Amino acid sequence: MNAPLRRVGLVVIVLFGLLFANLNWIQAYKADDYRNSDYNGRVQVAEYERKRGNIEAGGTALAVSKETDGELEYLRTYPGGAKYAHAIGYKPVNLADTGIEEAENAFLAGTSDQLIGDRLRDLVTGDETAGANVLLTVSKQAQDVAYEQLRENRRGVTKGAAIALDPRTGAVQALVSMPSFDPNPLASHDPDEATSAYNELQQNPDGPLKNRALGEVLPPGSTFKIVMAAIALENGVTKETKIPAGASWTPPTSGEPIENAAPSICPEAEVTLMNAVTESCNTGFAQLGVRFGADALKEKAQQFGFEQDDLTVGRLGEDGEPVAASRTGGIANPDGSVDPAALAQSSIGQRDVRMTPLQGALIAATVANEGSQMRPYLVSQILGADRTTNYYTAEPDELRQPVSGEVAADLREMMESVVQNGTGRNARISGYTVAGKTGTAQSGPDTPDHGWFIGFALDKDGNPVSAVCVLLEEAGDGGSAEAARIAGQIMRAAIASPGSR
Amino acid sequence: MTVAATSTSPPTTPGGQSGVRLARSRRNAELSLLLLAMVLVAAYGAMVEASVLDTVTPSFWVSAAALSAVFLSLHVAIRFLAPFADPALLPAAALLNGLGVGFLHRLDLARTTPAERAELATFAGTGGRQLAWTLLSVALAAGLLAVVRDHRSISRYAYTLGLAGIVLVMIPAVLPRSISEVNGAKLWIRVGGFSIQPGEFAKLALLAFFAYYLVRKREVLSLASHRFLGVDFPRGRDLGPVVVVWLISLLVLVFEKDLGTSLLYFGMFVATLYIATERVSWLLIGLVLFFGGAYLAYVLGGMIGGPFANFYLRANIWLDPFADPYSDGYQLVQGLLALGSGGMFGAGPGAGQPLKLPEVQNDFIFAGLGEEIGLFGLSALLVVYLLIVERGLRAALAVHDSFGKLFAGGLAFTLGFQVFVIVGGISGLIPLTGQTTPFLSAGGSSLMANWLLIAILLRVSDAARRPVTGGGPASTRPTGGPPEQLHGAPTEVIRP
């Protein structure tokens, strides 16, 4: 029986050889696949072993990691709750990260290559240094006011957004999207709690998860007239030049007349460009649009930032929260020729023109900053866990120059007139010069109009300190006046906040 | 004691050359290896604490010391009871057992909060219970060595053992599901807080019976044959017992929903049959019957479901574990992810996340270990298993009686085959089945049965290496029963 015993011994060796070969396949060849598999929860546990860095604004922590007893060592909490949800995003265990939490994940989680010094020190000391801290440009005062005023707007509107920028730098002073949500349940370590919280938000018809300030595109209405006014100013029209107006105007080849918001607005045959902006004269701007043509409209809108689909707001030069592209839309007939009716409507920000609140704020900021549009950003600084090593400081960067300084000065004067004498009077702040433009956009046959306001404030020396855009969706009559009032409040808070001067 | 042991068996016949050659007992080698194994176990425990608790507590050595005491007692018992036993078996099994206890203790540490850890007594938690089971198992093994002074005496109870084996296999199948089913497989007897896996003991009992039966029948099974396609096939009537065992294994498969046990029994039987008859035809018949049966079960499971559905599901999970990674394929996927996360070198003892694995203290202990000790560590463990198997087969080769050859050879093969079935299962080489990992998995039944297996191998290897002309039970056969039951085993002509 010894021969078969020896063969059985060989068989066992072969079987063990198969096991060994298979383990090699799994633990060596396929190891990286398995290690980084989506189904592998170890990635998360390892991630939660290191204290994630804070997200802060104006010395206040908006996202902090607290030690727990559980398997995941740190719980991400958001002391600011719903107020800052859209400004910073959130970091759930299983779901997708969003906002700054996603964009600055490498620094916050401590895995960035730039933190190599910390990692090497950890190797020696055996500690797990926390991730780096991300400091935002957001002003606590402006954010408070923007959140509260939007939430308690006098029109009872449930959807809207507000964003404020520093026109000289592009730093975001406030970013609010309404309705907002509490990110804390989403970051829960209990997967059921996180998932049910997410599903509830996801199914809410008002879309609280949506960042309307950067992602909502709606017809800009009369706020778009600033773009049209810039075209006129660049083509020989001055602010005192009389342009054709009237109570009603029907574009050629179209049966649909353009009318003004109220009979009291520019019923005269001709008004100055200044008055047309101040009163928000639809017939005047529709005729300007048809006069200068669709190409001019599209070109100038693009120069202001329309059609850009890769803009992000976060750290300059890096990815951040994506911004939806604003569009001028179709103005042509099916055969390719310009449709004058569409052009006339597009000229007053209707038809297929779509704009994000950020784009509105950028237009205002450009006018305020002498025609120079600064790239918007949220991250002002990245500090190491020790709070002494500085890994990044924002260096403001011009995004584009849509108009010359002279044109910008004229636009600024006209927008000041809007707040002084026209439709934007609610935005006035005592002691400061405020300029702006209201917008009331028709959204559909049965839905109330959207109310817009874009504007900016100048300090006593004439320096622009804040540019803002407020959107109240489906606000109906008086929506833009309420938007102007809220914008004024936000700008006042931004001016008062310690960082602004 | 070495002196005492050797002095009891001086070569009485000057011409006893083999006695002179094998006179060394090698017990000191066993002691050194055992101490080395215990140092490894203690080092593993210290590394686990350093990693999980960030500090090595003063009591890290307690369980390693308790294990060392137990295994050293067995070593001392072997010096008296089986002085010529193979010196590698005890240290190898002790190393696996010790690492198993260490890993289970590591799981307890991961499951408890720091406050609870302080309360964790030596025998508390999964690791502590395993330690207690180890004491009991090793005591049983020593008891077996003490009671069974000659392995051939086991053959006297062959039919009793065979019947007991079949009954043990069948008990869980006939018991109600609430008592016998764990994770879909009906393999257990659960009474009160205890659960017994009778199949673990049935393995040993059935092997004893197979060995005895086949030694008696080997001539007729190997000689009376038809030649077909150049291979000698046995006569139809001699196929009877094979078919019976095949049916039993398929019944196990169907009613206990456990492919692993079924595969194990059948593999065990075919291997012993082949060793006894030296006929390759038995291997072919066995393979065809098993794979045919398994394929039939798979097809039936796909078509009619019923008792075959479980097997069908398991086969499909094996074919594509990632098809349903959160429910059906969850276990296997998590096992693969743990192994892959460990990679070549592993995360280090205590540095992995074994609690991510379902059933990590049982079926998936090898994957849990693999995450922490890596490919190199697992390969080392496989080598230790292989060492036990090959030393067992070596004892079978060296022992003089047919029953001993068959019994030891079958036991050694079964141990290796079981490792193949479970490790292959958790690493996706073969469909996953609910087998325990010998010496590592938590559970008293498995541990006891495997230590009894080691005890038998020690006993057989002692008989194999004992000087043939020396005194002692092997030559005088004081416990030898009626000769017909051994069927001339002592005078068996050994085929080359």
Write up what this structure looks like.
With 501 residues, chain A is of the alpha+beta class. Chain A is built from 17 helices and 19 strands. Chain A is elongated. The two termini of chain B are 36 Å apart. Residues 1-20 and 470-496 of chain B have low confidence and may be disordered. Chain B is mainly alpha-helical and 496 residues long. Chain B has one domain.
Q: Largest sheet of chain B, if any?
A: 2 strands, antiparallel
Global mean pLDDT of chain A = 89
User: What sort of overall outline of chain A do the alpha carbons produce when their principal axes are compared?
Assistant: elongated
Record field, number of beta strands of chain A = 19
Kindly state the number of beta strands of chain B.
6
Largest interface: A-B, 37 and 54 residues
First and last CA, distance of chain B: 36 Å
Architecture of the domain at 215-379 and 398-500 in chain A in CATH? 3-Layer(aba) Sandwich
Rg of chain B, alpha carbons = 23 Å
Q: Which superfamily, in CATH terms, is the homologous superfamily of the domain at 215-379 and 398-500 in chain A?
A: DD-peptidase/beta-lactamase superfamily
Major sheet summary line of chain A? 6 strands, mixed
Assembly type of the shown chains?
A: heterodimer
Give, in order, the helices and strands of chain B. Answer: HHHHHHHHHEEEEHEEHHHHHHHHHH
Distance between the termini of chain A: 97 Å
